[in-house]
Design a protein that fits this description.
Chains A, B: Keywords: Cytoplasm, Phosphate transport, Transport. The structure is a homodimer of 231-residue chains. Chain A has 231 residues and is mostly helical. Helices cover 79% and strands 0% of the residues of chain A. Chain A has one domain: Methane Monooxygenase Hydroxylase, Chain G, domain 1 (Up-down Bundle), CATH 1.20.58. Chain A is built from six helices and no strands.
Chain lengths: 231, 231
């Protein structure tokens, strides 16, 4: 970024660091939600639910800041793309926070039994894979690294596979033991939310690429969010 | 809207009519998805899935148009709010399209049996209530009517109640007959998507109010998207 106006540079850097801050918050909320789900820690779950408020607030502030920059500086080319990408990323990070909050809100003391369930290893594997995607895309943004973003984009297929396997596994448990249906349904929604967080990691990656190269995110990207051929 | 520049007026009107057009498309996709689900019409479901592509494309165009207006006209006060509200509404309508697409993609010929299932009346009731919210919020936008938008905002509680009742009903079916678990799980996700479309109708209503009155949407609005105390 090479501008005559020093103030403009500062504004762009400020916007970028707000996104980084928001990304850290979203990742932290996500980690708390997952830990709460794994351990059945209801009070940690409640704290995670509460953390989502600051993420929502931050999205509004970032949107305001981006609009102010557009109106005042009338950026063009890569600067304009950077500002637009930041707005879109704030929207994706808000959704990540929202979905992680939904997972956290589902934590009940019942989940204490989760560690005893055979399903827990598949769920943990999915959660770990999503967490990795989220971490990697935030690092790609820190470094403005289009190749790292591409690796995240390609990594979503793995998430979809893990989700589909977990989905089938949960159905099997429900069929074997009707008493598990309540809890398994709860976990089904958690799994779906994890898969969606993975989609937003992909969106974030595509917006990093848009900022750097101008390539618009593909509208028709397959999202793998539908399980067909149910058992 | 009272401006010295006629061209500016035209641009704002153009943006508004693009949102109306996008709203009509989203409503149409939604109606196709619901009809396909009710009748088990797989090919209508596939058409609805395809319709979502134009909605995604339209969101990108609306975003571009809004940014162009902000950069070129530097609108302030209610004009700026109107442009921002349009951008946010495009994002909500894109989500509505996406969720309706997910419902449409779940339609299988199995759903032919849906009309024979006792659950169908509850599901139809939820779908009809969400459809009403969506229609009403689009009319509120056509008329720029803050009171009508408020009625939609308040109407979301009803949706949440219908969803929670349907959720419990589906669990009961699964517990009674393990063979229904596959199909009921599918319907659970459809129900969840309907409930989320209801949330987006509320977001749309709040953004109409924001455009007209400057009141920011409440970040902490209860979303009722978590069922506690599972049977």
């Amino acid at each position: 970024m090479d501008h005559t106006s020093r103030a403009f540079d500062d504004e762009l850097l400020g916007l970028t660091s707000r996104i980084q801050e928001m990304g850290d918050l979203a990742r932290h909320l996500f980690e708390n939600a997952i830990t709460a789900l794994r351990t059945g820690d209801v009070s940690l779950g409640q704290r995670a639910v509460h953390q989502d408020l600051s993420i929502d607030q931050m999205q509004i502030e970032i949107e305001d800041l981006a609009i102010l920059i557009i109106a005042r500086r009338q950026p063009v080319a890569s600067d304009l793309r950077h500002v637009i990408a930041c707005m879109r990323m704030a929207s994706d990070l808000e959704r990540v926070g929202d979905l992680a909050k939904s997972i956290a809100a589902r934590v009940t003391s019942e989940n204490n039994a989760l560690s005893q369930m055979a399903i827990s290893s598949s769920l943990k594997r999915l959660a770990a894979a999503v967490q990795k995607q989220l971490s990697r895309v935030l690092i790609a943004f820190d470094r403005l690294d289009a190749e790292a973003a591409e690796a995240v984009r390609l990594g979503d297929v793995k998430i979809d596979e893990l989700y589909n396997a977990l989905f089938r596994e949960l159905l099997t448990y429900m069929m074997e033991d009707a008493r598990s249906i309540g809890q398994c349904t709860n976990l089904l929604f958690c799994a779906k939310n994890l898969e969606r967080i993975g989609d937003h990691a992909t969106n974030l990656a595509e917006n990093i690429q848009y900022a750097l190269t101008g390539r618009q995110p593909l509208a028709a990207r397959p999202k793998g969010d539908t399980v067909t051929g149910l058992p």
